[in-house]
């Protein structure tokens, strides 16, 4: 980690030393000058090569602002660089034309080259989650979100070899999903304390992979689906913060600006190595809709990659169940209800929506429901085509007494006299609840 060959630095000029975000230090270069915290304590020595892991370690210790010399600051370094003009780079139009050619020539379709992953997914029936697996998935979720945030920042700084690291993330979640898909979804889709783009990407990617597995994809295509979900919104990081963090209903102009992120993403992925084939074209079409009302090219179902259609449904569910500055999150049931309505108008793919139901049930995994005996339960597993009869654990008895975690028992509503009578918002949340009896939603499935 220490680079002995780094030149000996002259004493720092105080006029050139400034307080900056730790993210403004450039990874992979030996530090010209020492880096101190805002109280003057030494954090990193001169000559030490700054790594991504070192940044993450400092952040874990609560260090987010440091005092660094201008020579080590990304902002100062970038201000001194003459950036290539648009004419010297592949333009958005050129990259779009390349991806459009793939679509128009019908080269975007995927086929399985191996057995369906679904055939080796373990079925657990009416059993509770393994607590050790829950812990492992939770740790992987936290690690992945942190690493994903760093990778996209490094990609925006010009690093082009991030694809392999993303593919490794997908492989880890695929392995855990074959062990217990319900458990993985329960952990990954849990509401984040501070939802951000990395949190959204991970939820969308893992949910899309679960849908793809349900639809019979093989290992390569399941992994490709997850990888694309992790990277398909990287272009969002190029949009202005005031737009991403807007605390108002977005205008038509705002939406048009946000739509540009598909092309920004295509630009980033075009130069990124280590990604599975077709990742760029799948990402490019994620926001297309089967009825032709999507973007960037308003294509319809037959001209949209199936992986893109799967990701579109997963993206929609994830967005609906996440809070925005101008609206609270929907309950999982309300989100499912909304997607079912969208399937009627082909704003999302109906076949993919059916698979979403098989994966999550009508009362999605992790959500709370009231039962006909007055008790409250949490949905822990789907139950095949029995969308309204998932597998649950009672968390509160009819008299309002909480059921301790270690005392909870999995109940299969397909064989139990208990029935769901209402979807419930998560306590302490501001989730908007359902407003239509679910029997009406069931009719839309026929």
From TrEMBL:
Renumbered residue ranges of the record's region Disordered: 1-20
InterPro entries referenced in this protein's UniProt entry, alphabetically: HD/PDEase_dom, HD_GYP_dom
Domain of life: Bacteria
Record-linked Gene3D superfamilies: Hypothetical protein af1432
Residue ranges constituting the HD-GYP domain according to the UniProt record: 175-372
Ranges annotated as spanning the membrane: none
Entries under CDD domains matching the protein: HDc (cd00077)
Designated name of the protein: HD-GYP domain-containing protein
Source organism per UniProt: Planctopirus hydrillae
